[in-house]
Each structure stands twice: as structure tokens, then as C-alpha cells.
Fold this sequence. Notes:
By secondary structure, the chain is α/β, with parallel strands linked by helices.
Amino acid sequence: MQIAATQLAVQLQRGLKSLYTIHGDEPLLQQEAADAIRAAARAQGYTERTVHTVAGAHFDWSEVLAAGGSLSLFADKQIVEIRIPSGKPGKDGSVALQQLAEAAQGNDSTLTLVLLPRLDKATKTGAWFGALESYGVTVQVDPVERRALPQWIAQRLAAQGQRVTEGEEGQRTLQFFADRVEGNLLAAHQEIQKLALLYPQGELGFEQVESAVLNVARYDVFKLSEAVLAGQMARVQRMLDGLKAEGEAEVLVHYALAEDIRALKRVKDAMAAGRPLPMALREQRVWGLKEKLYERVLPLLSPTDLANLLQAAHQVDGIVKGLKVADWPADGWQALQRLALQLCGLCALPAAKTAGVRK
Length: 359
């Protein structure tokens, strides 16, 4: 049975299972899910815990299998925790996990907890993961998307008895908070806890949040491309400044932008040749949030726009590798900014027009 992390508390209230698997790449939410399972287990007498971290191709799975079948002299219930940081248990691990999953059925003395990173579709269809899902509960930990971050912050504040001012000022406060902690959920959690220590329960004004919350945002190169395609000019500029300050490689930033430009052109060309859009997107391995962004921006980008962007990406490729190009900034970050904002501007054009009409 697979559930979302938000459903875990309800599931635990209905009854503790003997096998849980948590998979995802958000450390804070994964930690909280695991803590919730451990707390429920302790409340039901699981007093002993062993932890096994799978590292390397020669990991001895016999120790894990033995742990699941033995109890100490001091406890009649135990938690066996298996951490697989790579998400790849290997051939022996695959067999062992299937055995553990089957053995978990009706085992009231051992609770098995498997911790995994985010898994791709192929891994989720594997026999070992299928066994974990069939015989136990798998908890998928999804990251908090940027657009949902203000609401997530508001919910966390409410849980500790605090709230922002109602109306526009409150929304501005939440947006400010989200900008300061974007891409760093663990730091966001710590900043929220700090507000509980600094101020009493009740309403928080913008000035209180502004003075307390540190700028702990961490920017992801591939989230940058999502912001560009969404036409979010101010966020793109902020992310570029943050990536530069963090020492991110210019070539990696260029790669992310150039890959989007190339993929957009290939999809556009495929559509011009008669390919349906969903098929063209699949062929270019575009899915998830990016699929929705591509669907929105492709009608806005003419073949000429994409040809110009492709040429610009080629020129910036030379600049970030130390070449000089006429009519372009010599500084790599300035060139990347120009390229990113050029694409971002085209993606934001309809919104800008709409805003102009409203005025």
C-alpha cells in the first residue's frame, strides 16, 4: 500500500504495520515521517532498535536477515531499520528485501523500516520494491514546490500557535519568508522554530519576521530552469545571484538553460512535422512539472524565437568557457543572466501584456 507523507499520521492511528518504506529526497520530511513511525512503535512496546546502512556492493545482507529473526534478552519487540542511501540494494539486497517483506506478514515482534532516496519509475517497478509495497506501507515523501511554500510555512506557524497578519501584508510576509528559505526546507523549519522562541503565540508582523529570518535559501540549477519557463523574472534574477554567491559552476547553469532551449526547439520541430505534442514531449523525456510548463510556453515561442535562443545559447557556451563574443558581456554570469532573462521574457510575455491591459 502506498500513501503520501501527509496521510501517514492517519494510517498510524488506524494501526501500526510491521513493514514501512519511506522514499523521497526531502531530508526534513523523511526524518519527520520516520520519527512518527518510531514514536508509534515505541508507544506499542518496540523498545530496541538496530540500524543497518547499506554501503557498497559487498554489503552483508545476512546480518539484516538475522536481525529480523532474533530478539535481545531485554526486549520482546524491536525496530530493524535499513538505510539504502543509493536506492540500489543490488542483486543480493533485492532477494533479501523480498524475504524480509514476506517475513513481515504477521510478525508482531519486529517492525522493519526501510529508508530510501527518491526513486525513478524503473526502480519502483522492480520486484524488491513491489514486495515492500505489497506486504507493507510505502510512504512517498514529495518535496514542497515553491508555489506551495508560503502555505506550508503558514501551516507550520499555525502548529506552534502563530500566524501572519491577515490580508495583503500577511501574504507579503509569507512570500518574503519563502524567498529567504527557498530550496532549504530544513533551514525553513529551524527559522519557524526560532520565531516560536522569539515571539509569543499570536500574530506576527512583517517587521518581526524580517528581523528574525535569516537568508538561508539554497538554489537548485534545475529549479532555475523551471522559474525561467514560468516567466518569473524577479525569482530568476534572485536565483542567479544566489547560485553565483554559492559558487555554482557557470557551465552547469548554462547546461540547464541550453538543454531547455534545445528540447523546446526539438519539440516544436516535431510538432511542425505532424507529431502530437504528448508524443513529442515523451520523446524528449519531458514530464512532471516541466511537461506542464512546456505545454504553456510552446505556443508562445515562434520558430524564429527558438532559433535566436539556440544561437544565443551557443554564444554563451563560448563565453562561460573563456571566449569573447561580440555584443555579449565578457563576464560569464552576466551572459547567463542575459540568456536566462531573454527566454524568461518570452515566457512571461502574455502575462506582461495582460498586466498592461489592466493598467
